[in-house]
Amino acid sequence: MEAFSPLTATLGGILIGLASAVLWLGNGRIAGISGIFGQLLPPAQTVVWRLVFLVALVAATALTALAFPQIGVGGAEPAQLAAPPAAWSIPTPVWIAIAGLLTGIGTKIGNGCTSGHGVCGLARLSLRSLVAVIVFFSVAILTVTITGIV
Amino acid sequence: MAVLRLPYLATAAVSGALFGAGLYVSQMVDPLKVLRFLDFTAIPTGGWDPSLAFVIVPAILVMFVAVRLGRQRPAPLFDTSFHEPEYRKIDGRLVGGAALFGLGWGMSGICPGPAISLVAFQPDGLWLFLAAMFAGSLAGSVILPSGHNRRLADAAR
After folding, report:
1. pTM of the model
2. Which of A44, A105, A142 minimises the CB distance to B140?
3. Distance CA A51, CA A36 (A)
4. pLDDT for B75-124, tens place per residue?
5. Could you count the other beta carbons within 10 Å of the beta carbon of residue A67?
6. Is B87:B147 a contact under the CB 8 Å cutoff?
7. What span, in angstroms and rounded, lies between the C-alpha atoms of B66 and B84?
8. Torsion of CA A118, A122, A127, A133, to 10 degrees
9. What's the pLDDT band for B157 if we cut at 50, 70, 90?
10. DSSP string, B115-129
11. pLDDT of B31
């Protein structure tokens, strides 16, 4: 059994919910990371707040990691990305690049990811988001089943 | 311009910080832990890690309350209106886009939030993933520019 962590998971979930709540009630914006990241190009003046948000996100990740090293990433190991299934003989960088590309295209075309559709959309009782969430969770679970990547 | 004032940017910073802290504390920053949730084949053997569900449900509940609170107000604190997505149609773009994202997510265990959050740890291959994700996002807006960009233009006004 790989470290099921309901307590830290719930605590982290509350923090993510608060993050979304603050951005919504403060600025009227959906805390959808794919949207915030994908719209980082000028000319929009909204680039500034998006950059501020993302820098704060990285800084807070680093600071909480310093403050609570016992939570850790991947147990006590350093963070690592998943490798492709060994039997498929695909070079890891190719696998990573394809996964990143699909994530970028998919979240742009589908207008959201786990945060925008998953957290904010479901909280707004959006039917569009519910459909998106069901589709991307199902496809991801199917993908993991086929690749046996875990 | 409301979006360049200090309270507005400070709100973005506080939100980003809470988000980053939440991703680390919940361990959703770890791609392998996310993959262990997505691996339903491990359910019969007892090796499944249901943690992700314990992250997203409270997050939704907190945001649900915030959305209710917001509906009682004409506008958010630091802008003139709530930027609620007004597009309601369930179409091929939504389903197709979600499917492509699901495929990428299942290959890597990385969705956009953790992708950014991982910059704090700089694992091998992360910058490649981020560059590919950004390129994919650009490609997506070139392939299907119409509706989304028009809504973006509306939002930026």
Report:
1. 0.93
2. A105
3. 8
4. 999 999 999 888 888 999 999 999 999 999 999 999 999 999 999 999 99
5. 12
6. yes
7. 13
8. 20
9. very low
10. HHHGGGT--TTHHHH
11. 95
B69 vs A contacts (CB less than 8 Å): 25
Closest Cα partner for A16 from A27, A37, A32, A36?
A: A32
Which class for B139: exposed (0-12), middle (13-18), buried (19 or more C-beta within 10 A)? Answer: middle
Which chain B residues are Cβ-neighbours of A143 within 8 angstroms?
38, 102-103, 105-107
pLDDT in tens, B30-83: 999 999 999 999 999 988 999 999 999 999 999 999 999 999 999 999 999 999
B4 CB within 8 Å of a chain A CB:
yes
Tokens at B82, concatenated: 């709530």
| pLDDT value of position A1 | 39
Q: How many CB atoms lie within 10 A of CB B52?
A: 21
Q: Of A105, A94, A140, give the one whose Cα is nearest residue A34.
A: A105
Structure tokens at A77: 């190991």
In B3-125, alpha helices (H): 6-25, 31-38, 51-71, 92-108, 112-117
Q: Tokens 């003989």 identify what position?
A: A89
Assembly ipTM:
0.95
Q: Are A3 and B9 in contact (CB under 8 A)?
A: no
Low-confidence ranges of chain A (pLDDT < 70): 1-2, 42-43, 74-78
